[in-house]
Design a protein that fits this description.
- With about 425 residues, the protein is α/β, with parallel strands linked by helices.
- It has one domain.
- Helix content is about 45%, strand content about 20%.
- The chain is built from 11 helices and 13 strands.
- The strands form 2 sheets. It has an 11-stranded mixed sheet with strand order 2-1-5-4-3-12-11-13-8-6-7, sandwiched between helices.
- Strand 9 and strand 10 form a beta hairpin.
Length: about 425
């Protein structure tokens, strides 16, 4: 192998290591957004949610952390209602093992913030009038004890759960648009079809969009709970990590879980950060909720959804209820945009460096090209500027010379006349 080829290989390896280092630095102690251009693998991940199948997530001591019917992948993360954070390290069949990452400091800070909240902030009047959009990607999902089936195409019991959410929001003075467009069948294209619905809701300038689902594990006791004197089902919040807005979606989910569990302790079981997009790239306050499972009664799921609805107006700053303020207002700063910009700039620089190295054949040639390029560009910028300056200076000098000559002529005329 030629020396120049070895240098190219070495340079490409260094650039690859640079890309990895950039990604690590950007998301240190955060979830890595598994974002692939075009979302080539998104659909299969989003569709892989089968009723009756159970993935168990265990810790290092074989303690059950969570279970769900959606597929669990290496790199998925879990944040419990108490703030413990885990990352899935291995998946063997239907058993996943997760490592403890520590307590989620952002979530704990939110718990402290809401505990110490005395005088809620008022939201802007125009913000208070914005709608909350509700829709259902898996519109056939139903609840067996009440609906008699786990799936009823085009008329799933999940619509009634969404209606309970919408009705309680409206009672709190919130404008709601509950879209009941069906998106059958529940296949890999379901989120593609529901994206049209979500895009239609976006035209109404919503303050938040909620995609209402249920889980599909057989165990009804896993979600059953008594909260506020009612038999309810707990909720899980799902955040897609194949999504450039993942960090802002995750921040919103943390706020929602922290505030909901402050108002109704134990209402939200956990946040699950999964492979997929789930149309959450459309806005920072997009949310996917799972309300119980198909073996729970629909009434219990409706009660859980209604209690969750009570916590949203003060969190979002909409309706008639005061709360911590309008999260996600146009002036609110979230990290998603800056992180995406950093990714684009970093990858562009590294990609450009790789192209320059490979096309030049060696580091020396690459440096020489850069030197010549910036030399030409600098000369191209300075040259015309210097010419303009010199031209202006010459004009001034000529102007002064003409005035002097005119004065001399006038003086000679006076001498002659005298």
């Amino acid at each position: 192998m030629k020396r120049s080829s070895l240098k190219i290989v070495l340079g490409a390896s260094i650039l690859a290591a640079g890309v990895f280092l950039l990604a690590y630095c950007l998301v240190f102690h955060r979830v890595s957004p598994a974002w692939m251009p075009g979302g080539l693998w998104n659909r299969s991940m989003e569709a892989d949610h089968q009723d009756g199948r159970v993935f168990n997530i265990m810790d290092a001591d074989e303690k059950l952390l969570s279970k769900m019917s959606r597929t669990v992948n290496v790199g998925d993360e879990l944040i419990t209602g108490t703030g413990r954070r885990y990352r899935v390290k291995t998946v063997d069949g239907f058993k996943a093992r997760a490592e403890f990452l520590g307590m989620d400091r952002e979530y704990l800070a939110l718990l402290d913030e809401y505990d110490g909240m005395n005088v809620p902030a008022a939201s802007r009047q125009d913000w208070k009038n914005r709608i909350v959009g509700i829709y259902h990607t898996h519109s056939a999902e139903s609840y067996v004890p009440t609906d008699g089936t786990d799936n009823e195409p085009y008329h799933g019991g999940i619509f009634e759960v969404g209606e309970a959410l919408a009705h309680r929001l409206q009672q709190k003075g919130v404008r709601v648009l509950h879209d009941k467009t069906p998106h059958e069948p529940r296949d890999e294209n379901a989120y593609y079809r529901s994206r049209r619905t979500a895009a239609g809701l976006m035209k109404k300038n919503p303050v938040a969009m909620i995609d209402v689902h249920r889980d599909g594990i057989p165990d009804p006791d896993y979600y059953s709970k008594q909260v506020a004197g009612k038999k309810i089902t707990q909720l899980r919040l799902v955040v897609g990590r194949q999504n450039p807005k993942m960090q802002s979606n995750l921040e919103f989910a943390k706020r929602a879980m922290a505030f909901a569990n402050k108002v109704h302790p134990g209402l939200v079981k956990e946040i699950f950060i999964a492979r997929g997009n789930y149309n959450q790239d459309l806005m920072s306050t997009a949310m996917l909720i799972e309300v119980g499972t198909h073996t729970n009664s629909r009434e219990a799921a409706e009660n859980g959804a209604a209690l969750f609805a009570e916590t949203l107006p003060p969190l979002l700053g909409v309706g008639n209820v005061a709360g911590p303020g309008a999260y996600g207002t146009p002036n609110a700063k979230t990290p998603a945009g800056w992180k995406t910009l950093a990714w684009i700039i970093g990858i562009a620089l590294l990609g450009g460096s790789a192209f320059l190295l490979i096309s030049s054949g060696s580091w020396e040639n690459a440096r020489e090209r850069l030197k010549n390029y910036f030399g030409r560009e600098f000369a191209g910028f300075i040259g015309p500027l210097r010419k303009r300056i010199m031209t202006r200076r010459g004009d001034v000098e000529r102007s002064h010379s003409e005035e002097a000559n005119e004065a001399a002529r006038e003086n000679r005329e006076k001498v002659r006349n005298d």
